[in-house]
Amino acid sequence: MSMQAMIDEWYPVGLFSQLDSAGRKTRLMGEPIDVASDADGNARVTSDDGRVLPVRVRYGHVWSSLGEPRKDIFPIPEADQPGRRFVDVGVVRVRCSPLRAVENFLDIAHFPFVHTDILGAEPHTEVQNYKVEIREEEDEVWATQVKFYQPQAAKSASGGITTEYMYRVPAPTCSVLYKTCPPRPSEWDVITLFVQPLAEGLCDVWPWMALFDDETAMTDLIHFQQTIFLQDRSILENQIPSLLPLDPGMEIPTRADLTSIAYRRWLKRHNYTYGAQLVAQ
Known about the structure:
The chain has a single domain (74-277), classed as 2-Layer Sandwich (Alpha-D-Glucose-1,6-Bisphosphate, Chain A, domain 4), CATH 3.30.530.20. The protein has helices spanning 4-7, 98-106, 111-114, 218-236, 258-270, and strands at 11-15, 24-28, 31-37, 43-47, 55-58, 61-64, 85-88, 92-94, 131-135, 140-150, 161-171, 174-180, 188-199, 202-211, 244-245, 276-277. The longest helix is centred in the last third of the chain and has 19 residues, at 218-236. It is of the alpha+beta class. The chain is globular. Keywords: Dioxygenase, Oxidoreductase. Residues 94-269 form the Vanillate O-demethylase oxygenase-like C-terminal catalytic domain.
């Protein structure tokens, strides 16, 4: 399987706030790497054979690549917006394809059944019509006009509301979610999923948030988001096939799966196939 297209992308490999000289031993697409701070406190990433890898620090995380990225890490303008709280949620290891982790994040229909009484509840299970497109100029997948009833859309929400979402896929293993901000309806809360592919069937997931919420304790914000993702983990680890199918005939989509269909088409177009299954077996 050709890996070059995904080798030349940026991936999260650790939290900048947790860097130290001892380093974090981890893997990136099967390759052992070491993430550490140098004498000046800067992030340094090296491969097992001593090669110094590209490094960036964005959105509270250290990013690196086994190849030569042709562009910088995607922008999130809200990360520079005054007044927001930036939440490093931590890391969750999941025995699933890194592409499966992103696709699950894009799925709205599972809310009432997996995140019952938080992000969804019966009988409010219908996914209303929404718009999905691959934006050619940005080369990103976007889903807009997504609306869903939620009993507790955010830690700051005091009751059930119809939440509006926008989903954005700017990189093969990253997704950015914009959703209704209960304390400030004119703004969007930003919740991201940065996925580090350890192997084709194993990944570390690094959620990160940029919120307008001056009331909730940081520990509670982190716990709320970790609770949501841990509910997803058992689903992700039991999906069959474990790799993400890119052949449209391998799974039967519904109207609720429009974002997933566009994501798979976009992956296939770019040959982002690490963690994917190309043909039925």
